[in-house]
Design goal:
The chain has a single domain, classed as TIM Barrel, CATH 3.20.20.70. Helix content is 39%, strand content 18%. The protein is globular and about 50 Å long. The chain is α/β, with parallel strands linked by helices. α1 (34-43) packs across α2 (71-82). The protein contains 10 helices and 12 strands.
Length: 303
Amino acid sequence: MSDLVMPLFFDETIEEAVPIGSMPGQYRYPLGDAGAVAERLQRAGLSAALIFGIPREKDAAATSAYDEDGVVQKAVAGMKAACPDLVVITDVCACEYTDHGHCGIVGETCGGGMDLLNDPSLALMQKIAVSHARAGADIVAPSCMLDGMVGAIRTALDGSGFAEVPIMSYSTKFASAYYGPFREAADSGFSFGDRTTYQMDPANAREALLESEEDAAEGADILMVKPAGLYLDVLAEIREIGLPVAAYQVSGEYAQLKAASALGWLDERKCALEALTCIKRAGADLIITYYAEDAARWLHEEQ
């Protein structure tokens, strides 16, 4: 159970937990619930959570993402105050905080179109990561797939007195169709284009490996493959780099199991545990999954 990580959504615009329609059993939580949620995870036997924030205000520069009183910053503080031993990991990205829904600063490219601008976005990620570390995050997890993001964040953390804060990089993140429910949960849909210019082509395994190798060279402490279940071949290869590897069983993987089991077509418990076992078998040291609490309970019952 120590290798399971629970993703959580905190929303500063609500006062009570709100169910996520496309992810049965998952919720957006108000900031006031941060401590209670942390305590619940620890009672379930979990030791880590990955948190995402839904801010009150959005703008083109994602300024609320690095506000010291921002939603993630307050959620981190609340969780750590209640459960100091819980490992709190923060997603470092801008898609929930920009009014256009992309993962950083957008502007006109040399080709004349609008797209993500790499270097201005790196500066933004540095600000976000440092603000999370100041709030008490144990690990920061950049998910924006920018060139040089790990090196830039490492430099910023080290220069701000947070050399001990590890980086879990979304080093191989595919441009997957399985992220749909997450975009509802995190309110992170994009207003134009898509993310294929900065996320990985699902068909390109060679570049997928190269991206993780580059992040390892820049100083990543943990590498990640996302989604998990459809990319176990890539996960097994990245394992050979030698760093700890996380795998993210994403919202669409969770939602399809929930939907099929609700119709009586699959045994949810057996299928979920089988899927998690296969991710572990392929080489994952950590599994980020919306089934974390359920799996911890099921595994405890089987002991």
